[in-house]
Amino acid sequence: MIIFNEPKTAPIVGLVLAAAFFSIQLLLCFKAKKTIIKQIPLYMILLFSAFVLLICIGLFGEGSGFLGNIHLMIAAILAIVGGIASIGILAAWIVYKLYTRKR
Q: Which sign, positive or negative, has the C-alpha torsion 13, 14, 18, 21?
């Protein structure tokens, strides 16, 4: 089964990644001592965003024929996935800050 066989599966993939990034980020927030280690999932999302931007501007090819703008559709699907996944990272930071504030 192909994950991106239809655009409607993009939010589902994003939610799965959001849960994965949430748990990884929360684990790193509580276990890591250095701030740069705590921010590894954030850097991964930023690299993913740069990759989506490169796809959007057509660096990997413009396409031809009726698939001329397919790179924009792929970039949009990947942006939805990355945006939803970044919500998991943000939620983990909020949980971490609320937990450490109460102590």
A: positive
Q: In the prediction, which pLDDT does 2 show?
A: 55
In the chain, what is the straight-line distance between the N-terminal and C-terminal CA atoms, in Å?
Answer: 47
- Give dist(CA 41, CA 13) in Å, integer: 17
Query: Which pLDDT score is estimated for 1?
Result: 47
**Residue 8, amino acid:** K
Query: Rounded CA gap, 12 and 17, in Å?
Result: 9
Report residues of the chain scoring pLDDT below 70.
1-8, 60-68, 103
Provide DSSP, 19-71: HHHHHHHHHHHHH--SHHHHTHHHHHHHHHHHHHHHHHTTTT----GGGTTHH
Angle among Cα 55, 58, 60 to the nearest 5 degrees reads: 70
The tokens for 95 are 């949980």
Identify whether the C-beta of residue 41 lies closer than 8 Å to the C-beta of residue 24: yes
